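Hi there,

I know you've been waiting on this one. I reran it after we fixed the sequence typo, so this is the corrected version. Both the input and the resulting structure follow.
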Amino acid sequence: MTAETSQTLDRGLRVLKLLADTDHGLTVTELSTKLGVNRTVVYRLLATLEQHALVRRDLGGRARVGLGVLGLGRQVHPLVREAALPALRSLAEDIGATAHLTLVDGAEALAVAVVEPTWTDYHVAYRAGFRHPLDRGAAGKAILSARARPSGDPGYTLTHGELEAGASGAAAPLLGVTGVEGSVGVVMLADAVPERVGTRVVEAAREVAEALR
């Protein structure tokens, strides 16, 4: 630190870097230890960063990078969407269902990229910007399953009628992408999701994760 720098800002940036380097978030105690400051300082830093959506805390109290970080660079969000589109397009055409990339935004799941199939007579209308609680729908539940199994592969999640009557969903979490918590999935008008769809969604999630690394 020099006379021209801000200690508080420096600590805040260090918090963001520490959180960006972990897939599972950090507790206040862990941040306090890594920064070498007391917990009160960490609480203040997190509260300030949360106000700007740069940090979010999950239900367990672990701090994670917030989607506000994407807003710091106007081109970041389009780049994330662009990176995911080839895998989503292939998934939508292969399955014949609407494919989507969903990211965590606070306590909600936010669809940031959506691709509809071109050859089907009908499909579920699902738009980028659609939000829903993390504990409803395949996209959010897939993310929660990854949180519950941080050291293992949670596979895929299936749901029916949770977000739209008559619609079923399948989703798999993004794994191994630092600072990004999300899932890739499909939504279709069906009473049940065929088994091969779950496997194909897992494959697409891996492709998107590779594109974002």
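Quick highlight: The beta strands are 55-57, 63-65, 98-105, 108-115, 131-133, 157-160, 167-173, 182-189.

Best,
R. S.
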